[in-house]
Amino acid sequence: MNTKKSMPEIEASHAEMKSKATQREVVVVLDNIRSGLNVGNIFRSSDAFGVRKIYCCGYTATPPHREVLKSALGSSETVPWEHHLDAVQLLQTLTEQGFECIAIEQTAKSQLLGSWQPMGEKIAVIFGNEVDGVSQALIDGSHTAIELPQVGMKHSINVSVCAGIVLYDVLFNR
Questions:
Q1: Could you tell me the pTM of the whole model?
Q2: What's the chain's average pLDDT?
């Protein structure tokens, strides 16, 4: 019979993955994310994949916002976070600290996620507004732009779903 694993079994089987994920210092920058539910979901993915910190910028909802807490399911307590009004200034600081800043956006020079190779072990992943995406100022301040290959008509994916895909790839496949 194929039964669910117990929590100790899950923790033991994930030890190797945890070791790989902690080799990289990945932080997330959320700029003007409208939905607290999206923010909470990004907290959950960040916790699951070992993100070191989330920076909520602009009007991005922060804990203890009701919608953030509803979808974060406690992960807002396990992933460190800060609020910054100015994401461009934060990006400059992260660059000075040695982070490779990657904007998740479709641009004239963006690379597909599968072909991108990180420059080092410190990576800041930038996600933008659900409607407008990553601002041009943040794209300009980034080292590169990465996009997810898509074949649908909308050429768009929910920001929290996108974050889950990108964070998994950055922390386990690169």
A1: 0.91
A2: 93
